[in-house]
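REQUEST ID: PR-0412
SUBMITTED BY: lab tech R.K.
PRIORITY: routine
TASK: structure prediction, single protein chain
INPUT:
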Amino acid sequence: MRAVVVTGFGGPEVVRVAETEVPVPGPRQVRIKVAAATLNPVDAGVRQGFFGGAGERLGLGWDVAGTVDAVGEGGGRRVGDEVVALHHGMVKPLGTHAEYVVVDADAVATAPTTADAVLAATLPLNATTAAQALDLLDLTPGRTLLVTGAAGAVGGYAVQLAARRGVEVTALAREEDGELARSLGAEHLVTGTDGAGAAGRVDAVLDAAVLGDSALEWARDGGAYVGVIPGAAPAAVRGVRVGSVEVRADGARLAELAGLVDEGALTLRVAGTYALDEAVKAHTRLAEGGLRGRLVLVP
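STATUS: complete
OUTPUT:
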């Protein structure tokens, strides 16, 4: 089968499509015939060597939507099930950017019934990250939250999930993204220049744009801040509780998120699709930035 891999670090040019054996599911695993797989910034980080693995062949891809094709002992799924899954791992020999992938059964959820595979593939990593970040903030209805990068993939899900919990959301985004942010549930919009002197304005900050100290300034004294890069949160100030989310696969939570898609409570956004053989082009487009949605690879 074909799979997208890197064997050296660098720009999009190091990405290649290699022939490899079809993986076999072990106990409590399932094999998915990939219908669509999202390209995320973490894949660019792997490609650039940020997470190690020098000298190894590394597979790319965390998100997948497709059909269960084989089930290991205790896998708990049936061949033919339409599913989505999060294939966690920075350094792994095979990712979801492939024709087939094996994942742990407890990372799998039934796919949304109202979305095709390309749209559904954008859900697992980004929505799970947003949900788990909000869990860390633990905000009750009526509290206030600033979401940076509110027009992005993680930020957009965070806005919708927080608003659904009754949290008053302020979106930090570009002026041209204001209509989008408000459509997702943000009650207020601020631009990148509005943060000067903003200390104490909100109860919590979810820093999806990785702004660090400048985002932290928005949190009130004794408030909370959560970033989306493990171990990269800024130093605490003014008694602000500081942390970062380290996303983990959770099939039960992913099933809840898929259900919210079917309810119309979560918006799936695709910025473009590429054939698996066009992975270099997809990485090039990702590096250009400015996306409002995710790029998706289709085998």
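NOTES: The CA atoms of residues 213 and 234 lie 6 Å apart.
REVIEWED BY: pending
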